[in-house]
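User: I'm putting together a teaching handout on how sequence relates to shape, and I'd like one worked example. Could you take AbrB family transcriptional regulator from Zarconia navalis LEGE 11467, show the sequence you're using, and then write out its predicted structure as tokens right after it?

Assistant: Happy to. First the sequence, then the structure tokens directly below it.
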Amino acid sequence: MKTMAPLTGEDLLKKVKDLGNLSKEEKARQCGYSTMTKNGVERVNMMKFLNALIDAEGIQLDSKQASNGRGGRSASYRISVQSNGNLLIGSAYTKQMGLNPGDEFVITLGRKHIHLKQVDAEDES
């Protein structure tokens, strides 16, 4: 069975509408939201499918505070040095800034501040 990239946005909405009276699971499968396990069993990922539908419809479930839907802490804009000497910037901040895994920064240290400048692909060449 050939796997396809899951549909998103307008493509997803159109496909779901075209599929008419099929079950939710079959609609998810037809839109690319299924995978094969190591044992060859097909698994339909309904949560990803339903979240993609919500996003495609433009429905904003999360508040602007970048909540993660699990009742976690809200961003306080304060951090502490950890016992191992590290500073950890949480996902609430990186999500709010639109950062992705692998994004790189140049660190400039001031007397009592840290400045991060994002490294663009153009800067690397």
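A couple of points you could highlight for students: DSSP finds five helices and four strands in the chain. The helical segments are 9-18, 24-30, 46-57, 91-97, 121-124.
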